[in-house]
Amino acid sequence: MQSLNPARGQARSRGSSETLLARGIASSPRASRSLPVLAGTRRIVKRSPKGLLLGRLGPDRARGKWLLLCVLFLGSAVAYGAWIGGQSALVFGALTGGVEHLAVAVGFGVKKISVEGQLHATDAEITAALKAGPDTMMLGFDTDAAKERLEAVPWIRHAQVMRLLPSTLQVVVEERIPYAVWQKDGQTFVVDAEGVVLAPALREAYADLPLVVGEGAGKSASALFEALAPYEDLRKKLIGALRVGDRRWTLKLASGVEIMLPDDNVPEALISLAKLEQDRGVLEREIAAVDLRLLDRITVRLRETASAAPLEGSAPAEVPTASTKTVAKRKT
Questions:
Q1: Sheet strands (E) in 99-155
Q2: Which of 130, 148, 162, 240 is the most buried (most CB within 10 A)?
Q3: Is the dihedral of CA 239, 243, 244, 247 positive or negative?
Q4: Rg of the Cα trace of the chain?
């Protein structure tokens, strides 16, 4: 049956459509041709994703909290048991070792050692002093301790150790300089200017270094050769220096002449010898020894006789004696 009031029927149909549109169920044909704007859309989008998010992650977070609590409980139980049983050091060592192995596995192990300044120290000495290998973790390597161990190597005076991540150790060393060859009890060693024994040595291997012999000769050599520095001719004739009683020196020349120096005032004694050599050429004569130990005279011993005799006019004018630093008068 048709409605007798078409306008009323159209109004009722329009009201139904508006009601459905408000509920988000239907849309008008005109709204479908443009961007839909629904009255309840903003409220639905705001609630629905939030409800889904909480519904999905809530149980996972709870399980994570329980898992963390379980791990903490087990870790505390293990630590307490280790402490009670006196095994805490072993547990700590195991944990530390595990961390180190993990760091090495990911590339933080020592793979290369770079050394600068190495001349005489051997690779074996440096490697042994470093105590670093492929299983050594770079981040835990103690560079200060390695520096001390390197400086304990006789050849090395100073050392510097640096870590170049991820896997390189750089070592810079300053070596001691060989100064003399020291002979003692039939053995020979190379020493530096401070008398530090650097290594056993053959005399032939260090032929350009002076030879010193006797107790204390190594540590006293630098003072002697500093005093001999101005006398180049004498140094060229010298083949060795004998330390007597760790008090004084006897110089051995290539001609076979021995020069006996005093306990002290060595520079003054050498001045006297140089003056005597200049005036009389005593070192070119057939003599066995020149004795500069006495306070007021120079004594020579000839090769032909074993008796010692003072050189005639042995203390010439203006020649200082060995120990007094005074000018001796000529004897008449």
A1: 112-116
A2: 130
A3: positive
A4: 48
pLDDT of 48-86, one tens digit each? 444 333 344 455 555 656 766 675 666 666 665 655 655
- pTM to 2 decimals? 0.61
CA distance 309 to 317: 19
Which domains are delineated in the chain?
A: 112-175 (3.10.20.310), 180-310 (3.40.50)
Strands 180-184 and 258-260: unpaired
pLDDT at 11 over 60: no
List, as one string, the DSSP characters of 2-58.
--S-HHHHHHHHHHHHHHHHHTTS---HHHHTS----TTHHHHHHHHHHHHHHHHHH
Please, are residues 191 and 182 in contact by the beta-carbon 8 Å criterion?
yes
Q: Answer yes or no: is pLDDT of 295 > 80.
A: no
Identify the CA nearest to 174 among candidates 210, 147, 197: 147
**Among 229, 221, 324, 327, residue whose Cα is nearest residue 275:** 327
Q: What residue has token string 């399980």?
A: 63
User: Strands 168-175 and 180-184: what pairing?
Assistant: unpaired
- Residue 168: the pLDDT is 87
Nearest to 135 by CA among 86, 101, 185: 101
- 312 is written with which tokens? 């005639």
Q: 325 phi and psi, to 5 degrees? A: 60, 20
Mapped onto helix, strand or coil, the DSSP state of residue 91 is: helix
| Amino acid, single-letter form, for residue 213 | V
- pLDDT at residue 210 above 90? yes
pLDDT for the residue 45: 43
Partners of 248 in beta bridges: 244
Q: For helices 88-105 and 41-84, give the axis angle rounded to 10 degrees.
A: 130
| Mean pLDDT, rounded, of the chain | 75
159: its two tokens: 């050392």
